[in-house]
Design goal:
77 residues; mainly alpha; 0% strand; single chain
């Protein structure tokens, strides 16, 4: 996993936590930290989380290297 994908994953997790807080408690953490939903900082964070979600979309179609390898067949003792 590349550095960009790891950063995107972290931003996506932050977005998921924020959506969970909105859904369960009607509390927007990003808006409360950065001065409301309309502030420039909040909109930047929302935009970065959206872009991170699109970057992570590529992970759905990336082959899993664990399953691509040959199975380890050893005799059972």
């Amino acid at each position: 996993m590349s550095v960009i994908q790891r950063i995107a994953l972290i931003l996506t997790i932050i977005g998921a936590i924020n959506w969970g807080l909105i859904g369960f408690f009607q509390f927007d953490l990003v808006a409360s930290i950065f001065g409301g939903q309309g502030s420039a900082f909040s909109r930047i964070i929302y935009g970065l989380v959206g872009i991170a979600g699109l970057v992570n979309l590529g992970l759905l179609f990336k082959p899993n290297e664990q399953f691509e390898r040959e199975p380890d067949v050893r005799p059972v003792k």
